[in-house]
Write a sequence for this structure.
């Protein structure tokens, strides 16, 4: 790893640690300063409120001249985050990256992205469609995912029961949740999709 | 005064902490106006942009290689016209003097911020861990082979290394022999290791950490799985083999049939009829006179006439065999000349003494229905002897060997009409003429209706006289 990258990461970690308490977290995964684990809190007044979302951060050797690679480890139901891989569609992680940006600003930007989805430039087309066609259902689904995967406070009993129904058919829990979310919580549609 | 200054300086740094590496780094944290936004370090050869931001020269150069914008406010920047050296800031930074973070340990060095990192890495008070983190114990460097000693500082560790050479040697020896045994085991169990590869879930956990001897259970499981796989394959192969042999035998049957067909088509009118299982067939015929034996159809030439031979108990006289030929339909009938003109020879082979073989030759008779173009698969009327040989003589006098009767039939064809007459006049001996008074027996249907043979009286007489001669010949037979 280039000297400048390692040096910068050291400083950036300190910057985050010293920064807003309880909102952002950043940990080293290895000693080479290339793999980090980030954590952001779901922004208030959003379906993600109360959840803690883990992020995988990989620092390229050419950092900070190239952006870090960031994806969600925690499953998130959001139009600009892949519900499958956790990949994030955010301009500053791609062509709008600037060397003056830091991991702290990146994490804050992702937090802001959770608060303001951009369904017209989606990473996950299924989620984006739901967001556009049925926003209340999208919010409830996102809240449910936050509850299940990010320790969010809102328990959606109806959804839990529907997942349980599929579980009893022998479907893997996450697959069941994805299928149900995809089919707007229509158990029949989800079942058909899983068993076809 | 000097003394005070030093004290103040060290106090200024000390609160930032010098106990952890992170804080060592932090201790060199520049003020934001001296910080490069790209490397987050002290500005080195600072430059200032037209949009008013300062960077290290190398940082902004690297950034602008791939991007044409300011890293901070995204304004378009050109390396040539928008970047100027900021010598004012450069001087300010160089005038700064920072104490070494190890000042508390006794380092009195003061350097410019730019040189501080270089100094820290070479500072004699920057003893790895021990000086900054006295609570952390140093493990012996032989910890990998099992030395459990730990020390508070490097000197103790060094003296341990010097003093305990012998125990380290024996630890090394033990580790070596363990590796050797493991290695031997793994060599010996090459197959087992290979089998282990089948056992995907256990592979990671067991292969490296546990010696092979503890892998018996997964090994057995792997072997068992392999056995199952091989059995399955074996079963599949068996099915394949069964299918192939089925195909083979079908092929062999087809081949044999083809061979027989070839023989019949290319025998050029010389057909040898081997009637096997003759005793049983004869018994069946004696029991039921309606039963008859038909030979397969044979061709006088590949595209010529087709005949078959018929052998049955004579309907007139059950003591006699009737032997006749029947014309059969062929695909070439339309191109052949009708009625059939030619000579037909029978020879019933004496298998013990060829001299007693019974030979008879007949000329076709163009007036008979038997020689006209057949209208049924086998022409209803046959041509030959209604009383050919005495049944008992056939059985007794050497014509049946190994339960097989052999009848040879020769047809001579073609002869053009004129040519045939001339030939017939020349070749056929007067004695043979007697055989030309032959029957034209209708081919009895298999249900055996209308088997009556239209033989005239003279006809019968001629046959009788012939048969007497035949019987005489039999009586001379040696066996």
């Amino acid at each position: 790893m280039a000297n400048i990258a390692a040096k910068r990461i050291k400083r950036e970690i300190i910057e985050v640690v010293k920064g807003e308490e309880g909102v952002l977290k950043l940990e080293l995964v290895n000693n080479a300063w290339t793999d980090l684990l980030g954590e952001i809190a779901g922004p208030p007044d959003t379906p993600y409120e109360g959840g803690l979302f883990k992020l995988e951060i990989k620092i390229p050797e050419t950092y900070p001249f190239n952006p870090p690679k960031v994806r969600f480890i925690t499953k998130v139901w959001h139009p600009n985050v892949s519900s499958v891989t956790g990949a994030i569609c955010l301009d500053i992680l791609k062509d709008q990256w600037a060397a003056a940006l830091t991991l702290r600003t990146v994490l804050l930007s992702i937090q802001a992205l959770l608060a303001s989805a951009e369904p017209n430039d989606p990473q996950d087309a299924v989620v984006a469609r739901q967001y556009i066609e049925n926003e209340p259902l999208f919010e409830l689904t996102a809240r449910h995912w936050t509850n299940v995967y990010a320790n969010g406070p809102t328990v959606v009993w109806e959804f839990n029961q529907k997942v349980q129904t599929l579980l009893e058919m022998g479907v893997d829990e996450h697959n069941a949740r994805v299928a149900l979310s995809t089919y707007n919580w229509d158990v029949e549609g989800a079942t058909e999709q899983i068993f076809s | 005064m000097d003394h005070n200054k030093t004290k103040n300086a060290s106090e200024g740094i000390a609160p930032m902490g010098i106990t952890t590496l992170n804080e060592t780094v932090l201790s060199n944290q520049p003020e934001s106006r001296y910080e490069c936004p790209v490397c987050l370090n002290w500005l080195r050869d600072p430059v200032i942009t037209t949009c008013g931001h300062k960077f290290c020269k190398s940082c902004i150069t690297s950034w602008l290689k791939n991007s044409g914008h300011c890293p901070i406010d995204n304004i378009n920047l050109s390396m040539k016209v928008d970047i100027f050296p900021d010598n004012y800031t450069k001087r300010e930074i160089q005038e700064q003097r920072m104490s070494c973070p190890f000042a508390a340990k006794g380092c009195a060095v003061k350097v410019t911020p730019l040189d501080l990192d270089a100094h820290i890495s070479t500072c004699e008070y920057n003893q790895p861990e021990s000086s900054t983190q006295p609570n952390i114990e140093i493990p012996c460097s032989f910890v990998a082979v099992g030395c459990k000693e730990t020390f508070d500082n490097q000197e103790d560790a060094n003296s341990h290394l010097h003093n305990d050479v012998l125990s380290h040697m024996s630890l090394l020896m033990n580790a070596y022999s363990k590796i050797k045994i493991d290695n031997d085991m793994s060599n010996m169990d090459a197959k087992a290791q290979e089998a282990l590869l089948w056992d995907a879930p256990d592979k990671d956990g067991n292969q490296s950490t546990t010696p092979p001897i503890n892998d018996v259970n997964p090994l057995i499981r792997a072997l068992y799985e392999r056995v199952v796989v091989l059995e399955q394959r074996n079963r599949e192969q068996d099915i394949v083999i069964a299918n192939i042999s089925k195909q083979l035998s079908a092929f062999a049957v087809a081949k044999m049939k083809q061979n027989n067909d070839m023989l019949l088509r290319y025998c050029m009118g010389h057909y040898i009829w081997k009637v096997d299982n003759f005793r049983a067939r004869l018994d069946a015929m004696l029991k039921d006179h309606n039963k008859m034996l038909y030979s397969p159809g044979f061709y006088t030439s590949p595209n010529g006439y087709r005949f078959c031979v018929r052998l049955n108990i004579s309907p007139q006289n059950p003591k006699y065999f009737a032997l006749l030929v029947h014309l059969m339909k062929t695909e070439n009938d339309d191109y052949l000349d009708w009625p059939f003109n030619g000579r037909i020879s029978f020879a019933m082979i004496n298998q013990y003494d060829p001299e007693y073989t019974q030979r008879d030759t007949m000329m076709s008779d163009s007036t008979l229905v038997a020689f006209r173009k057949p209208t049924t698969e086998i022409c209803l009327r046959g041509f030959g002897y209604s009383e050919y040989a005495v049944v008992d003589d056939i059985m007794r006098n050497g014509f049946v060997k190994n339960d097989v009767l052999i009848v040879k039939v020769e047809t001579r064809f073609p002869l053009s009409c004129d040519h045939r007459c001339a030939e017939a006049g020349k070749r056929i001996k007067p004695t043979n003429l007697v055989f030309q008074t032959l029957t034209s027996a209708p081919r009895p249907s298999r249900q055996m209706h209308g088997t009556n043979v239209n033989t005239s009286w003279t006809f019968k007489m001629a046959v009788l006289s012939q048969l007497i001669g035949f019987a005489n010949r039999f009586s001379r037979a040696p066996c």
